Amino acid sequence: MLKPPVGILGGTFDPVHIGHLRPAIEARDALGLAEIRLIPNHIPPHRANPLCSSEQRLAMVRLAAAENPGFVVDERELKRDKPSWTIDTLIELRGELPDTPLCFLMGMDSLLTLPSWHRWQELLDYAHLVVSLRPGWQPDYPADIAGLLARHGTRRAEDLHLKLSGHIWLADNLPIALSATRLRDLLARGQDTRYLLPACVAHYIEQEGLYRTVAENPQAGPAQPGGKPGHP
Predict the structure, then answer these.
(1) Which pathway is this protein assigned to (predicted)?
(2) Which of 37, 108, 189, 217 could join 74 via S-S bond, C-beta 3.0 to 4.6 A?
């Protein structure tokens, strides 16, 4: 008999915010997940290196996880000295959890770009894909993704309990229009970010003086003085 499924949420978490956490909470509740594993990565393969160090991002993720029942932190990707490919992490987790369905959480934008992922055709061999909505998004599925949904899509939450992997479940979650880039710009401007990230994370950012330099948006206005810039 299979154990209750486990959710997997990876990312740079630079910083972790409600756009990460709220869809994960809704997936946990809708699917009856045993836990959500937050997996911060060290070297993201598809984007620039994070502004904050691995240690700072790990500290923020730990703070966020501590406030959410069923959330745990998995540090495995931070210990790698190479890009963190999702397929490698899923293979490791499958070896460690042979009787547990794995549910890899992603946004609709990630699903649409899935063919650009490393060994993407193998992902469903190791996990289910749980896809959250994005505000105002009207998906125009490419042919390969439309075919993937036709073969693997399900609307039945119980299906993800009955198999170790292989389904794609489209979540009916509350859409949240927030990106880490936008949040970092707000922080750099010194604007109020309450309700956009956990209060404990906001306190850590303030305490450490993170994100006070404007590195991404030259129109964002002057940086706030007196802070320690995030590590490149």
Answers:
(1) Cofactor biosynthesis; NAD(+) biosynthesis; deamido-NAD(+) from nicotinate D-ribonucleotide: step 1/1
(2) 37
Q: Which residues of 204-232 are buried (b: 16+ CB within 10 A; e: fewer)?
A: bbeebebbbbbbeeeebeebbeebeebee
- Sorted by where each begins, the domain ranges of the chain are 6-170
Element (H, E) at 38: strand 35-40
Helices 54-66 + 199-208 axis angle, to 10? 150
At 32, is the secondary structure helix, strand, or coil?
coil
Tokens found for residue 207: 């305490």
Q: Which amino acid is located at 138 in the chain?
A: Q
State the Cα–Cα distance between residues 5 and 121, nearest whole angstrom: 21
Encoded amino acid at 52, one letter: C
Bridge partners (DSSP) of residue 9 are: 38
Whether the link from the prior residue into 115 is cis, omega within 30° of 0, is no
- The domain defined by 6-170 carries CATH number 3.40.50.620: yes
pLDDT in tens, 182-217: 999 999 999 999 999 999 999 999 999 999 975 444
Q: How far is CA 219 from CA 182, 188, 192, 227, in A?
A: 12, 11, 18, 20
Look at the block and give the residue holding tokens 């984007």: 47
Where is 73: in which H helix or E strand? strand 71-73
Give the 3-state secondary structure of residue 168: strand
- CA dist., res. 48 & res. 4, Å (int): 35
Distance of CA 10 to the CA centre of its chain: 4
Rg of the chain, C-alpha, whole Å: 18
